[in-house]
Amino acid sequence: RELARLEAGSKKYRHPQAQVPWIYDGNNWWTYDDPASIANKTSYVKSNLLGGVMCWELSGDTSDIRLLSAIHEGLQ
Hints:
Blueprint lengths: L1 H8 L2 E3 L6 E4 L4 E3 L3 H13 L18 H10 L1
Antiparallel strand pairs: 1-2, 2-3
């Protein structure tokens, strides 16, 4: 996938407060979620007694569903 290629060839940064990763390759900027940012978000959901989470779409998830699994594990 495109993101895996970008992660391998570019420096990955993480926003210190939001804890979401981003990549800048000198021309393009991408922000996205990874299992660590999802864990942070689900922790926020649980600690604030919110009703759950939503996903825009999952077509960018890995074949072993790392992102969906992070949501499931985080809400347990």
